[in-house]
Amino acid sequence: MDDQQVSVFFLVLGPPGAGKGTQSGMLASLLRIPHISVGSLLRSRAQDKSEVGWRLRGMMALGTLVPDTLVLDVLATRISKPDCARGLILDGFPRTLRQADLLERGLLKPSFYSTNLREKLVAIHLRVQPSTIVGRLSGRRICSRCGATYHLETQPPRVNGECDLDGSALTIREDDRIATVPKRLQIYEQETAPILSHYSGKTSLLEVDGEQPKENIAQEIVTAIQSMLRISIAGAQNVQSMVENNP
């Protein structure tokens, strides 16, 4: 998007393990706007040697939702930075109807407000079956330094246990452990799934089959966005190779 076009706020929604981070990163590279992962922001905050950090570590280990007050504090700080002025891609938020309401009424910058939210906010929903989610999360590994994502079966590192990009050790996220996954999926169905009805009536909601290969998902998203927003995205023809070649 060039600087003359309206700022657009993208929400990438879906259950844990749906591929939100992969697709958000692809969009961020193409559109040259920030990819903000609420999960990454919270995991970073959880490393603090403070009471807040201790509380966050406990909640993530149990797979429970983080209180809105904590999420909004971390997110508001990030959104206020200058690089978000032209738009941004939000991954992992909102997760409840209340968060969706707070986002629209108070957290977005004035540059995002419009009498017609359909012009300013695009929600992308990645649909994935629970059985697929369990397989994805159980095999997911994360670089302890740069955060690159791998999967033991579908996208393994070149050297077992080491990141291809910087050689750091790969780890399992606390909320990806088998004992935690069913709880996370239950919370998603109860709290997050109703958001889809909320957005279907007031925004451009893009429904995408998240069971496809990630390269196909990326191409479908980019093609739909160009049509929705009536824009031409530079590099869109290379989107499949972009996703395929990056962890």
Would you give an account of this structure?
There is one protein chain. The protein is 43% helix and 15% strand. It has 247 residues and is an alpha/beta fold. The protein has one domain: 3-Layer(aba) Sandwich (Rossmann fold), CATH 3.40.50.300. The longest helix is centred in the last third of the chain and has 16 residues, at 214-229. It is globular.
Low-confidence stretches: 111-115
Strand order of the largest sheet: 2-3-1-4-8
Inertia-based shape: globular
- State the order of secondary-structure elements, H for helix, E for strand: EHEHHHEHEHEEEHHEHH
Write down the Rg.
17 Å
Give the strand tally. Answer: 8
The CATH class designation is Alpha Beta
Furnish the topology, listing elements before pairings.
Layout: E1 8-13, H1 20-31, E2 35-37, H2 38-46, H3 51-62, H4 68-79, E3 87-91, H5 97-107, E4 121-127, H6 130-139, E5 140-143, E6 149-151, E7 170-171, H7 181-192, H8 195-200, E8 204-209, H9 214-229, H10 239-244
Parallel strand pairs: 1-3, 1-4, 2-3, 4-8
Antiparallel strand pairs: 5-6, 5-7
